[in-house]
Amino acid sequence: MFDCTPDVSKREQMSEVIRYVHISNGKVCIEESFLGFILSHEKTGKGLASEILTQLSDDDLNIQNCRGQAYDNGANMAGKYKGVQAKIMEKNSLATFVPCTAHSLNLAGVNAASSNVQMKNFFGKIQQLFNFFAGSPSRWEELKSLKLTLKPFSDTRWSSKSVAIKAVFTQLPEVKNALNNIIEKGNAESIFLAKSLLLSIDYEFICLLSIWNSILSSIDRVNVCLQSKSLTINKAANLIKGLINEITDLRNNRLETLFKSAEELTTKMGIATDFPQKRIKRVKLLDLEESTDDWNATSKKNCIINLKNVCDVLTMNMNWRFEKLNQISSDFGFLNGADLVERDSNYLIKAAADLAIKYDNDLNLSDFTSEILNFKNLALSMLPDLKNQSPLNILELIHEYSMTDIFPNICIAIRLYLTLPCTTASCERSFSKLKLIKTYLRSTMNQNRLTNLSLLSIEKEITKTVDFDSVIDNFSAIKARKIKF
Questions:
Q1: 379-412 b/e (C-beta count within 10 Å ≥ 16 → b)
Q2: Dihedrals φ, ψ of 97, to 5°?
Q3: pLDDT digits (tens, 9 = 90+) for 49-72
Q4: pTM, whole model, 2 decimals?
Q5: pLDDT higher at 81 or 482
Q6: How far does CA 226 lie from the centroid of its chain?
Q7: C-alpha 169: how far from its chain's center?
Q8: Burial, 272: exposed, middle or buried (Cβ in 10 Å; 0-12, 13-18, 19+)?
Q9: Residue 400: is its pLDDT beyond 90?
Q10: First vs last C-alpha separation in the chain
């Protein structure tokens, strides 16, 4: 897994992380280990791929042993023909590319939020509220005096939108009171801005606030789960399927309920429960037709259409952006406990044969197909609740009962499944350490020192095992200036 970010000295740093299955004393766990930062000078897919291959060679890692690669959705990384993943696949066709699921979900949300003008205006109002209070210490103090807080947001960090919307939604009556207080005792500029913001908090705004809070809360919960380093492909695919079902249910069944709850909040705040009137295009009526100039009904209808469009854009984006993830989950799905229990023998044999053909260097077709049937019957006797077991639990069972020699191909297949990455969140987390280590006062730090300090900080569990006394003794012996006679 690789990802890039500029450091404080405006140099492009590429974070290198490897994902693997670690087995020790019968215990199986998924590890993602940080290897270092690479000073990158390239922007094209070909150039970045060359730097990655060179670094892997320097780390004594054979690219032919790689079975998965994960990057963000940038064209130079994820490009089908000239991206890094395509160049790596030319060297090793088994290095399956999985786009970062968290980044893909972020892009799906960004596209949905900008799908129509009404949604763009809504998020603009949310940002204006924060900017108004944050733009003046006195206005911010007014907010703090009521024990309130507002948050900004950005498109590159989707979870910030959820935090910003939730802060306004849960504190809207208090925010309105803060605006009224500023109108009463503020200066001319503050009064003018506060009045315009107060007018923008209408029934339409509250309806959109309630619905977007529900949508973003669902997305944010899945987004947090996707960032776990122990997450596997099947769990990620299930999370996305659950989110799609939830958004679809909201679109078809829950919009009217959310409108009613928004109407109750609007009434409590003393705001008119009418949508803003907009001019309707006049259509020439035929004989005997009656005029239907219902301003409020038409505005609400347009709002519902826009919201349904948001849900449609969101689900459509998730369906095509996670197509690769679902395909991998389908290829390896028969290794899950539920499939082993519920699927018949013919299905398991076909699925095992297809996987063995794809990974012909790792799996033996005839042995794998016979192993899967034997293992199904054996596992059912050892694990009565096999249906609820994940591939990780099944691999632990094999090692616990010392059956690795009996089912070698199943072990390899499950390890391949668990090794495939879901996100580049570990790379993103390493950037947080980069900002803490390479600061403005240490901007001239060389690359070797930066990588070493980052390793000590990020891989702190390994650092704790180091005997620093012996390290200090060795260092002092090397740097000794006195000559012993």
A1: beeebeebeebbbbebbbbbbeeebeeebbbbbb
A2: -90, 130
A3: 999 999 999 999 999 999 999 998
A4: 0.86
A5: 81
A6: 5
A7: 23
A8: exposed
A9: no
A10: 54
